Amino acid sequence: MNAAPVNAATRARILVAEDSPLNLQVALKQLERLGFAADGATDGAQALAALQRVPYDIILMDCQMPELNGYEATWQIRERERAQAAEPSAKRTYIIAMTANTQTDSSQKCLEAGMDDYISKPVELPQLEAALYRGLAERASTKGREAVVDPVVIAGLRQLRMPGKPGPLNELIDLYLQEAPRQLEQIASAASRNDESSLAQIFRASAALKGSSSNLGARNVAALCDEMEQTVRNWSLADLPPLIDRTREELNRVRSVLEQIKTEEKD
Length: 267
Hints:
This protein has 267 residues and is α/β, with parallel strands linked by helices. The chain has ten helices and five strands. The protein has helices spanning 21-33, 44-53, 70-83, 107-112, 125-146, 151-158, 169-193, 198-215, 219-233, 240-266; strands at residues 14-17, 38-41, 58-62, 94-99, 117-120.
C-alpha cells in the first residue's frame, strides 16, 4: 500500500490512546506509513490532558486501559464539549474506538459511549486507513451543518438512550419540527395584528421557540429569537417582519440538517 499524499487530510491532528507500549508504537508506525503524524497517550487520563493542550481532530481510543478506560475518557470528552458548546472555537473530536472484539467491548457499547466509529484489534492497515478517511469525510461533510445544528448537543441527546430501548433523538427531532414552525407562525400572526395582545403573544412564542431550538442545537434560531424579543422590548414591531423571514429561512436549514440526522439514526 502506498502512503497517502501529504495534503489537508493527512495534516489532521491525531492522538492514539493505548496502554500497551508495543501496540502504541505499532499504531504510530501504521499512521506514519499512511502519511499521518500522530501523538501517543498511554491511558485515558493522559488523552484528556493531551486534548486540553492540542485540539486533536481524531482520537484512536483503546477501550480497555487502566486508571481511565476509553469509554470513561470518551464520556468526559463529550461532557467537556457540551460545556464548551457556546464558545466560538468549540469543536467536536472524532473518536475511533479500538476494541478487542470481545463481549466486554461491542460496537453498540462504543457508540452509546459517544464514540463515532470502531475498529477491531489487531488493527490492520486497510482497516485503519478506511476508519481514518471515514472520520475525515464525516468531519468535512458536517463542517457546514455544524454552523446550523450544534453536533455536541446532538451527541448529548444520543446519550439519553436507555438500554433495550430505541434512542429518543428522532422523536425529539419530530417534536421540534412540529412545534417550531407553529411557534414562528404565532409570532408572525401576532406581529401582523399589532394589537394589545401582540406583545405578550410574541414574547411567549419567541421564548418557547428559543428554548426548544437551544435544546436541539439550533443556535442561530435561538439567537434570532433573542433579536425578536429585543425588538419587541423596543416597541419596534415594524422591524419584526425581516427577522421573521430570516428565522423562517434558518428553520428551513435546520429542518434539512435534522432530517439528515434522522436518516443517519436509522442506518
